[in-house]
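Good morning,

Attaching, inline, the backbone tokens for the sequence recovery test we're adding to the shared suite. The designed sequence is right after.
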């Protein structure tokens, strides 16, 4: 804005140097006043000097000054806000990165709070873009915040999906618990040695104990377990026998389960009268097994190491009717609450399973039952309370108890009790009445299963 005194000074100097009646100054009159002095009057038009425009410019300048001052004030406010939100943006960036790594640990409320903060920042950046001409930085900032918002939305969707999965799994788990409760009401574990139940209803998951005493996965043939009918003072005896081929060579005895785990045997011997096969048992301080390359059965006294041999009539060693899971398994010894048994097949039975009860006092066969189950269909078998149970492979990691034969009634039937295997194959499976566990030897590992039985209905 041009000050008034300066403006008139300029005007005076201009009139002094411009001839009267010349140029763009319009009408000029000259004459003498009442005192006789010379007077000159000049009438300037708008196009000569735009007084009105100057006044408008002065007004506009004043308004612009106010706007500029207001703009600076606003910029100072934005600057302070921006400093705060830059720090918030840095914090948000860190939080979003953490959420991306572990989105399932955050709740819906935390996602909502994060979204509100991002919306506030987005609003601020939008205002700055509209207020400041140089918007390149703010455009970039705006894009970054929008990207962060998208990430948060994606994370929230992920969280919702995760919650849906958890909810679905919870419903499945709840259904399993309900089934388990129903199964628990119908099943129970009877007292050790008792047969007051309706037979096996379920088998637990496999319990992997450890690798064998040789600490070698190459010792894939053999077995392990407890003495099924221990003598007083030897109730905790465990045994193990393993080899790299299907023969019975070394036998190890352990005073209890802890020493089995420590591989600290109190007695072990090389069996000079070695045997074939895997499904051997220890019963009443005797170790029962298939005599080497023969159709005979043997047992070793664990105290004296004396060996006894018995010939089973009608049997011959040829391994034609071995289990499908293992070779050279002519005789499968099994112990249960009723005594000691041997499972095998003969030419006369045409390969079908034959079951005999062993008199442990005389080491002879008391009674024999014939079945209609072809032994090559079976992967293994065991006895529980005078009932023969046979298994077969469903797939690489699932076995099924599919058949049972009741020696009391002579009835045989097909059932279905699947259970999981830790490894693809196994060579040994036997029930032990001393603890009601199923013992398995698979790929050189000690494995056991818990067994559940059907509760007998109470009659009114």
């Amino acid at each position: 804005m041009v000050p008034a005194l300066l403006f008139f000074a300029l005007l005076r100097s201009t009139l002094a140097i411009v001839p009267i009646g010349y140029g763009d100054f319009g009408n000029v009159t000259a004459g003498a006043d009442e005192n006789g002095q010379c007077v000159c009057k000049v009438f300037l038009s708008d196009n000569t000097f735009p007084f009105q425009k100057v006044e408008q410019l002065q007004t506009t300048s004043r308004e612009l000054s106010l706007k500029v001052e207001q703009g600076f004030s606003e910029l100072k406010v934005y600057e302070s806000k921006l400093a705060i939100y830059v720090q918030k943006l840095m914090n948000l960036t860190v939080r979003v990165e953490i959420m991306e790594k572990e989105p399932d640990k955050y709740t819906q409320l935390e996602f909502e709070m994060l979204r509100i903060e991002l919306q506030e920042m987005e609003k601020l950046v939008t205002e700055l873009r509209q207020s400041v001409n140089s918007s390149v930085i703010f455009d970039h900032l705006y894009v970054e915040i929008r990207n962060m918002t998208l990430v948060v939305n994606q994370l929230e969707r992920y969280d919702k999906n995760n919650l849906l999965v958890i909810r679905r799994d919870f419903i499945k788990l709840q259904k399993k618990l309900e089934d388990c409760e129903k199964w628990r009401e119908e099943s129970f574990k009877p007292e050790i040695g008792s047969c007051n139940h309706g037979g096996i209803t379920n088998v637990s998951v496999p319990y992997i104990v450890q690798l064998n005493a040789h600490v070698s996965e190459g010792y894939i043939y053999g077995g392990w377990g407890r003495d099924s009918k221990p003598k007083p003072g030897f109730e905790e005896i465990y045994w193990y026998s393993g080899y790299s081929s299907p023969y019975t060579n070394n036998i190890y005895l352990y005073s209890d389960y802890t020493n089995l785990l420590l591989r600290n045997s109190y007695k072990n011997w090389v069996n000079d009268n070695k045997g074939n096969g895997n499904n051997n048992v220890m019963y009443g301080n005797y170790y029962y097994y298939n005599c080497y390359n023969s159709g005979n059965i043997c047992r070793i006294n664990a105290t004296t190491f004396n060996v006894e041999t018995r010939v089973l009539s009608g049997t011959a060693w040829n391994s034609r009717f071995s289990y499908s899971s293992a070779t050279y398994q002519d005789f499968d010894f099994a112990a249960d609450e009723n005594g000691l048994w041997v499972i095998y097949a003969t030419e006369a039975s045409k390969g079908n399973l034959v079951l005999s009860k062993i008199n442990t006092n005389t080491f002879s066969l008391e009674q024999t039952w014939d079945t209609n189950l072809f032994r090559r269909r079976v992967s293994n078998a065991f006895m529980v309370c005078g009932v023969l149970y046979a298994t077969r492979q469903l797939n690489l990691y699932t076995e099924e108890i599919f058949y049972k034969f009741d020696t009391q009634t002579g009835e045989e039937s097909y059932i279905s009790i699947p259970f999981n295997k830790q490894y693809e194959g196994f060579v040994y499976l036997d029930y032990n009445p001393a603890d009601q566990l199923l013992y398995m030897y698979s790929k050189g590992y000690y494995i056991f299963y818990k067994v559940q039985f059907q509760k007998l209905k109470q009659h009114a």
